[in-house]
Design brief:
Strand content: under 5%
Shape: elongated
Order of helices and strands: HHHHEE
Strand order of the largest sheet: 1-2
């Protein structure tokens, strides 16, 4: 290589010139706009997905709430009629509680649990006249319109 070719391959600062990559002229403002657009579109997609999921979830919960309210209303109506079949409730409760305890612990604890279970059922069905009436729980309920 001649001296002249060697000098022409060097840049003005004395270093050999290299093939430099030219980057497109992207300004900071343009870059920020692009990032904001991408972020906004991503957030819009997330919002749409969340709204669809939430609306399906809320509609299902509302449906379950209506069904639960219907079942609870029927349960309260049946509970109101408990005085009509009080002896069956008291005897059934005493037998079930006493039987389970007797199977697990023996005859004497079973008999004691039978008596206590029957007494508790009796109190719930008929109430204890000086201490608790069977309908006293109604005063705590909100008034229906």
């Amino acid at each position: 290589m001649s001296k002249k070719e060697d000098d022409s391959s060097r840049s003005s600062d004395g270093n050999p010139s290299q093939n430099t990559i030219q980057f497109p002229d992207i300004s900071l403002k343009t870059s920020i706009k692009k990032v904001v657009e991408v972020t906004n579109s991503t957030l819009a997609t997330f919002e749409q997905t969340t709204d669809e999921t939430s609306s399906a979830f809320v509609s299902r919960i509302m449906s379950l709430g209506r069904q639960a309210r219907s079942i609870a209303t029927r349960g309260v109506a049946a509970y109101e009629q408990r005085g009509s079949y009080g002896p069956q409730i008291v005897a059934g409760t005493a037998l079930v509680v006493g039987g389970v305890v007797a199977l697990r612990r023996g005859k004497l604890p079973g008999a004691l649990a039978c008596g206590l279970g029957g007494a508790a059922a009796y109190g719930n069905v008929y109430g204890y006249h000086n201490y608790y009436t069977a309908t006293s729980w109604r005063k705590d309920l909100p008034k229906s319109e």
